[in-house]
Fold this protein.
Amino acid sequence: MTVNYGKIGDRFFLVGLILICIFLPTSKYMLSVSQFYLLALWMLLGLDMRSINKMFPEKPFFSRLFSRVIVSFAGIWNIIKTRFTAFLHNKVAVIMVSMFLLHIFGLIYTSDFQYAFKDIRIKLPLLLFPIILSSMKPIGRKQFDLVVWLFTASLFFVTILGAIKFIQRDFIDVRELSVFVSHIRVCLCIVFVIFVLAYYLVRRNYIPILKILITALILWFLWYIYIIESFISIILIIALCTALVINCIFKCKNNILRVSALVFLLSSFAMASFYVYKIVKDYYSPEKIVVEDFDTHTKLGNPYIFDTINYGIEDGRYLGLYLSQDEMIKAWNQLGSRKINYEGDDTYWSLVRYLTSKDLRKDADGVSQLTTSDIRNIENGIDNYNYIENPGIKCRIMKILVALETYQATHNANGSSVFQRVEYIKASLNLIKKHPVFGIGTGDLNNAFADYYEETNSNLLPEYRLRSHNQYLAITIAFGLLGLLFFLFTLLYPYCSDKRYRNYFYSVFLLIMILSMFTEDTIESQIGVTIFAFFNSFLVFTSPYSQDDPEEMESLSRECK
């Protein structure tokens, strides 16, 4: 039994879906408001107030008003009961909700209920969206396209603001180019939209101007991912493209197309590998130097130091060439507000590395050539001119190589999110060893990690003493190996049931989520859990593509042949 809510109700429901998509990358507060709006629609759509108003025409005003209120509440209760019954009869929806119930189960043996209830509140979308969307009517293809296009527009708006900050160089870290919410969550959404737009480009008979627009949007989003140095997004794009090409190789009967796809795949891997190899090789391969050709003194008459051993190499340059320490420090202290107190402090190294990246000598003359922006960058701890002026994947790899050298020499991971994750993994595995079967409960993760860092005298600074940054490890710590198996079941069952693996949109989205959970605790934040819970339910229950259209599948089959 379903509740009919007519065309007007359809429009209200569509507005709710659109609001969720618009505010996902732009506003946490309005995203919460939009979820309450959808919940209100779930309880109210289908209530026929006109019929209720006509039921008591003869009674006095107050008696009539009271009767209407009573009947209205009865009608709302009937709607809720009917829709909740529809949810309970949907096995996939119930299994989706059991991911939330796993966290409720973890309350049994938690000790920090204050944090546990906060965690439960954050994860409410895991409960609400499967219940709401599984018991509402699916939308049509035009409505689906409208939701996707407005979601794309919202992401485009966010990237425009980021591009403005990039052009103005109004940032210290490229992550600041995501203005409203975490750059990681925004990039996950962008990767999903890129592959949806690619589908539209190939499968839809759009007019040429619209196809040009879609192509431009895809290129724009790829550029944004590049400048924001989202390594996980690049990996996701490569993984998704690989999966699509492999799918084409196995499904297509046209041998020429299969061979072409295989050649494309292997060529892409070769080019990507060569690109990374060349960056690493160039990083560690400075030009040969001839000491006899070097100037021995600065313009002020002070001798240069040429140290190719202790100062190391960065981006294909020796950091210790043309170095006049005292002269450089004196010139900087007259210029910058963040003084260098001694040779080797953080500002000293930032200055040396920054001057090297600009191919300037480490003396008074080199310091004098720094612009106001350069000085501000160095004072903000930016070690390389290219980190601000030329961000991208090359810079990201360079940062990893710098951090690798530091980590190998000192085991200090404070300067790198990559090697901080190494420390988080070590901590996670040790915590799992202590409680391998059932874990430590829903609310005890923060205390467990804090205790571990204290017990091991971790050299991580307090602001970097975080949790797993890996969803699978976080689940295992909280609920043990049994909880991890149950989590994986709730994650994969909807995809495997009713041949949903044939649904392109859902396949792309789920693969993005599964892979992102290896480097991020995706469902531990409000935006992350809402992205997962909303699209996981929307693409299964509400989207018209809950299963692939047989006509489109037949058309694709004919093309492959």
In short: The radius of gyration is 29 Å. The mean pLDDT is 89.
